[in-house]
Specification:
single chain, 277 residues, alpha/beta, Rossmann fold
Amino acid sequence: MKNILVPVELHSTIDSVFATALLFARRFGGYIEGMPLGPDLPDLVAFDMPVSWTVADQNTWKEMADESHRQFLDFMTKAGVPPHETAPDTLSWGWAGDSSFGDTHVSSYARLFDICVLGRPGAERGDARMATAEAALFESGRPILLAPPKAPTVLGDTVVIAWNQSMETTRATAMAMPVLRKANKVIVLTIPEHKVDGPTGEQMAHNLRANGVRAEAVERSAKVRGHGEAILEGAAALGADLLVKGAYTQSRLRQMIFGGATSHILARANLPVFLSS
């Protein structure tokens, strides 16, 4: 997983996004490409809004893109990461575009990369946006890596797979195989109260071991807790520095109304989360 896309928006946890992307890239000698991110224009412009306002707003987006580029460049420079043109065969960075792109373009462009690193969505003004995460998750065909609010110092040494026996988690596990093979320990975590019909955690761990992954299976009861809460508590107790999960085993609409494991993890995870749909 050498090619890593980092959409850069000036939200509250962007430094953690940079740090998470760099930790991930260091494991693979990867290439990190930043691109300026802004909301999709149709989300902001009303049908009868004057053209002059739109032009002014686009000028503002250009200024935001320039600031995004400056922050990305400052981080990479301080981290000692060279630009790609001077170090094409090792850990390096690049930059795409000089004006902000919307979520739709980002999700399309992400199809060229192995993974897209984003901030964990938040409910407060200035937090990373859920719309960006969902666009990348459902429209890129690639996994995403959500950075926690606080920058991690380790990533990928101890990996927990939130195994609910579903197709979505099977796909996430398959996409994460390059990460799993490099991990010191992989734990297939099953919450028995919240699973669908499918192979057991021990069966998945056996399959992973046959593929060169140092894997073991663990079960932890949710008791009266919700599924997402039980996953995060289990991951913390097992010393995980990365969580792998299939997104939205239940429908997105159902999770919006009633809640669910993915929704809880998107709102509460304090460790990096590798997700695919």
